[in-house]
Specification:
By secondary structure, the protein is of the alpha/beta class. 37% of the residues lie in helices and 15% in strands. The protein has nine helices and ten strands. Strand 5, helix 3 and strand 6 form a beta-alpha-beta unit. Bound molecules: phosphoenolpyruvate and manganese (II) ion.
């Protein structure tokens, strides 16, 4: 079922692009990233407020301090905003700014959190667990749907394999397999899926050509200075070039990217 929200029809003819920094760091960084992705044609702004990092000494996100920064970025761009929820206790505070709530890869199996989001009415982007089988991912979505929330978008973000050249192994075939067996829109995150900026535009183009419903990519005005995932961030220029490429391909595939 398409997710119709904030003027968007995700799963409909338009290919949906979600873009922004891995994490909200400060107002300058967020406004620069937000204005650039809006200008290039992104439909939804992203930015982590609570970050689940592999190392406990890494930047954990601004938490509530990010809320006024996000409000400023939304006001400047008019874009809806997506952010990750890491605990059920955040549902209320995130609702101040979040139009879409993301369940990250580490929480796909957090069934209590999924049940809580089933009771909420906010659209949920459910990432695939990094070692989740496709059926497990579909079942996780069912936990949300059973609560009465039918606004669910699935997001393939790569899985762990023996291969380490790419950060994860982006399973485009798996994403398409799920798309053909479920009524839910399926998007792809080639930023976490590859970890390599030079691979991201190609994988986004492949997702569009395959008939998937959108992409989510990380964009930072100064990737070298990013507090999280800088190595995989696209510069604003690289993101603009990717959008130009997707727009051309979208015309050929009847999946328009820009209105
Ligand atoms: C993210 O999108 O910022 C993120 C943390 O992704 P994942 O849960 O896929 O690692
Ligand atoms: Mn990230």
């Amino acid at each position: 079922m398409n997710v119709k929200f904030a003027g968007l029809d995700i799963g409909g003819p338009q290919f949906t692009v979600i873009a922004g920094p891995c994490a909200v760091e400060n107002e300058d960084q967020m406004l620069q990233a937000s204005n650039a992705v809006k200008t290039a044609g992104a439909h939804i702004l992203r930015g982590g407020i609570y970050k689940l990092r592999t190392r406990p000494d890494a930047f954990q996100g601004l938490g509530r301090e990010a809320l006024p920064i996000v409000k400023a970025a939304k006001a400047a761009t008019g874009l809806p905003f997506l952010t990750e929820i890491t605990s059920a206790s955040q549902v209320e505070s995130l609702s101040e700014v979040a139009d879409f709530i993301m369940v990250g890869t580490r929480n796909m199996y957090n069934y209590d959190l999924l049940k809580e989001l089933g009771r909420a009415r906010v659209p949920v982007v459910l990432k695939r667990g990094m070692s989740a089988k496709l059926e497990e991912w579909i079942n996780a979505a069912e936990y949300i749907a059973r609560g009465g929330n039918d606004k669910i978008i699935l997001c393939e973000r790569g899985v762990r394999t023996f291969e380490t050249a790419t950060r994860n192994t982006l399973d485009l075939a798996g994403a398409l397999w799920v798309k053909q067996r479920s009524s839910l829109p399926v998007i792809v995150d080639p930023s976490h899926g590859t970890g390599i900026p030079a691979l991201i535009p190609g994988m986004a183009a492949a997702a569009l050509a395959a008939g998937l419903d959108g992409v989510m990519v990380e964009v930072h005005p100064h990737p070298a200075a990013a507090l999280s995932d800088g190595a995989q961030a696209l510069t604003t220029e690289q993101f603009g070039a990717m959008m130009d490429r997707l727009a051309i391909l979208g015309k050929a595939c009847q999946r328009p990217v820009r209105a």
